[in-house]
(rape) hypothetical protein
Amino acid sequence: MEWIHPMPKIELHAHLNGSIRDTTLLELARVLGEKGVIVFSDVEDVIQKNDRSLDEVFKLFDLIHMITTDHQTVTRITREVVEDFALENVVYLELRTTPKRNDSIGMSKRSYMEAVIKGLRSISEVDVEFLPASNSQNVHNSCDGVGRKKIYVRLLLSIDRRETTESAMETVKLALEMRNVGVVGIDLSGNPLVGEWSTFLPALQFAKDNDLYITLHCGEVPNPKEIQAMLDFKPHRVGHACFFKDQDWEKLKSFRIPVEICLSSNIITKSISSIDIHHFADLYKAKHPLIICTDDFGVFSTTLSNEYSLAVRSFGLGKRETFALAKSGIDATFAEDEVKQQLGLIFDSASPEYV
Ligand code: 5GP
């Protein structure tokens, strides 16, 4: 399946801190170990463990955040994550991250996001287009799969389920202020066993009323009431959808809400017990909009190409169907029409290889 790597791809569900390179994480942990802030060998064991429950994943995130949450590191990992996606021919990336406040180092949610933007601006390995089309001088189709790589990047600000309504609202207001630097929407994520839907709803409704796009982590654990409430909210996309019941599928399908599918993540965290019973198959058969994504390529040791290979192997997709699936992701992006058109041209120019 050597054709998957060069194929243009769209990534719509990638968490910044979950996509950190293993090598970078270990390097940063070693430095903190030398300073006596953490015990490096403990961290090394946790980082290198391959099999983690969803609960263990969130413990790992707390550890990752201890290691990465300073402005310089946020800038560095943003640069590396975008370069890694571009180098495997991701042509459009919606990168999400939770703006963090840490008074002890003078970090506000805004300065955290400014560090992310600095990371985008600092990329020289590949061409990055992250400003909205109206604000940018160089929207053009230069991604030919052989020359210099080009990637469109848009940002989603995540609300962590540990946050209060007030803190969630602060994130939404920040997103509105940062629309001119490529912020297009809001994500709700964090440990699904924590927090209540009613806490986040006012901020999410405010975001929606102000034309931000919304994607929700939905149905990662069995919580029928919350799943129904989330679907009734009519988000623009949902992620995971692992614990949906018949009535949830019915609603999702009738609203045509696209689903971000993260195969490795679902299997590793045991949200889905085995790939052959993954809901990908049913949604694909029903021609429901879905997008293959990585979730956290660092934490789950995967790549987007690997996720596509897994889908091809597990569900018997052919080359042409896989290409069509990747291309169909354009409609589910939160990008402006100009960018969607450019993405269409990129896929069209690659299509002779895949028909
Ligand atoms: P960050 O927002 O710090 O850049 O990325 C890591 C954060 O994304 C985690 O702390 C968590 O809030 C969220 N996250 C990453 N992966 C998952 C996932 O699989 N499920 C949920 N619910 N949240 C996740």
